[in-house]
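HUMAN: Quick job: go over this next protein and say how the chain folds.
***
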Amino acid sequence: MAPLRPGDPAPDFELARDGGGSISLSALRGKPVVLFFYPKDDTKTCTVEAISFSSLSDEFTSAGVALIGISPDSVKSHDRFARKHDLTVVLAADEDKTVVNAYGVWAEKSMYGRKYMGVERTTFLIDPDGIVNRIWEKVKVAGHAEEVLAAAKTLRTD
């Protein structure tokens, strides 16, 4: 499957989320959506990223932008992660890796010479019509949430 690019329709999904219930992309149609894919709950860089997005969640909400973090971790793991770090972003559980595969972020990685499969830290900005507007690949966390917020604010929701 070809990788997603700006201008492509964002693959729909429905995933279980922290705190119970589920969240779907189609239910958010009509507003911009930020999906940030991260490898694992409660690891150093993932925690910094989730805290960064959480610290700006009120600003995303004020701008009419939905914000969702997605990883292959379970809802139970997400609940612990959110409680431990007072996270205010929605965390969706993609345990069967359907969504990470649909978005092309499940990839071969390498650490200390060992190859393995995992989530490539990537953020997608989806416009109110469900079209991919922008993609940040191999994200460096410092300043990332602020950059995404600035880009999301440029999308019209009227």
About this structure: Strands lie at 14-17, 22-24, 33-37, 66-71, 90-93, 106-111, 114-119, 122-126, 132-136. The chain has one domain: 7-19+29-152. The chain has a mean pLDDT of 93. The domain at 7-19+29-152 is CATH 3.40.30.10 (Glutaredoxin).
